[in-house]
Design goal:
Arc Repressor Mutant, subunit A; 3-stranded antiparallel sheet; 13 helices
Length: 262
C-alpha cells in the first residue's frame, strides 16, 4: 500500500504529531449525539461547530469544554463532508447501527497516531488476556520516547484503553481483558475501503491493518463483504479465489485522480 502522506492526507488520513488520545478517548457517545444533531451528511463543518459549541448539544458544563470537545472530535473524525473518510463514516453510520463502535474506531485509528501505535500491543494480546494501563503506558513510551511526561502517559493509556473498550476489543472497568471484536458488514466494508484508498486491491484489501482491527477471519470477511454488496453499499465480486471490490457510492474517480490514488 502507498505511504505517500500528502496523497493520503487529501483523502482524510492524518499524520500530525501528537494525537487526540493524549486528551480524550474516541468519544463514541459524543460523536453519535453530534451526528444525530446534524442530520444532513452534506452539512459543513460550521454546522457541527454550531451544534456542539453554540447550541451545546453535547451538554458540556463550560464554553471551554465545548470548544475542546469539538476540537477533539474534529481531529478524530474531520467533520468535513469533503473529507472522504468522514463522508464514508457517515454513510455506514446511518446504515449499520450495530457497527458504529468499530466504524468510529477505524476512523479514529486512521487519524490518530497514538491510537495507531497502541494497536500493535492490543492486537497481540490473546482473547481473555489481561491488559493494564501501566503496560499500555510503557508501550506508548517506547513508541514515543521522551515525548510525554509520566502523568501524560498514564492519562493517555487510560484514554487508549477506553477507546479499545468502547470498540469492543477490551472489556471490564478497572481490570481490562482482551475481547473479540464483533465485525459487521458495514465495519468490514469501511475497513476494505480504507485499504482501497491506501492502494490495496483484490485479496490484499482483506489483509490490511484496518481489517485486522476487526478480529475477522478471511472467510468471515468474505461473507460480510458479500452482505455489504447485497445491501448495495459496495460492489463485491468473487470468482474462485479472485476477489474484487469497488466503492462507487463512497468516492469518485475524480477524487481518486486528484489525490493521485487512481
Amino acid at each position: 500500500m502507498t505511504d505517500d502522506r500528502a496523497k493520503l492526507s487529501r483523502l482524510g488520513f492524518s499524520f500530525r504529531r501528537g494525537g487526540t488520545h493524549t486528551a480524550r478517548s474516541m468519544m463514541l457517545d459524543d460523536l453519535g449525539t453530534l451526528l444525530d444533531e446534524v442530520g444532513d451528511p452534506e452539512a459543513p463543518r460550521s454546522a457541527y461547530r454550531e451544534a456542539a459549541v453554540g447550541q451545546n448539544c453535547l451538554g458540556k458544563r463550560s464554553g471551554n469544554n465545548r470548544r475542546i470537545t469539538f476540537t477533539c472530535l474534529s481531529n478524530l473524525y474531520s467533520l468535513e463532508p469533503e473529507n472522504v473518510l468522514f463522508r464514508a463514516l457517515r454513510f455506514f453510520w446511518s446504515r449499520d447501527a450495530e457497527g458504529r463502535p468499530l466504524l468510529a474506531l477505524l476512523c479514529a485509528y486512521a487519524r490518530d497516531p497514538v491510537l495507531r501505535q497502541s494497536s500493535g500491543f492490543i492486537l497481540e494480546i490473546p482473547e481473555g488476556g489481561t491488559v493494564t494501563r501501566e503496560e499500555v503506558a510503557k508501550g506508548l513510551d517506547s513508541s514515543f520516547p521522551g515525548r510525554f511526561s509520566r502523568a501524560t502517559l498514564q492519562s493517555t493509556a487510560q484514554n487508549v484503553n477506553g477507546t479499545w473498550t468502547m470498540a469492543g476489543l477490551l472489556r471490564g472497568k478497572s481490570r481490562k481483558t482482551r475481547a473479540r471484536a464483533r465485525a459487521t458488514a458495514g465495519s468490514l466494508a469501511y475497513s476494505l475501503f480504507m485499504g482501497y484508498l491506501r492502494g490495496a486491491r483484490g485479496e490484499s484489501m482483506f489483509r490490511s491493518e484496518y481489517v485486522k482491527l476487526l478480529d475477522c477471519s478471511y472467510p468471515a470477511a468474505l461473507e460480510l463483504a458479500t452482505e455489504a454488496s447485497a445491501a448495495g453499499w459496495i460492489v463485491f465480486n468473487r470468482v474462485g479465489n479472485v476477489v474484487e471490490a469497488s466503492f462507487p457510492k463512497l468516492v469518485s474517480d475524480e477524487e481518486l485522480e486528484a489525490s493521485g490514488q487512481d
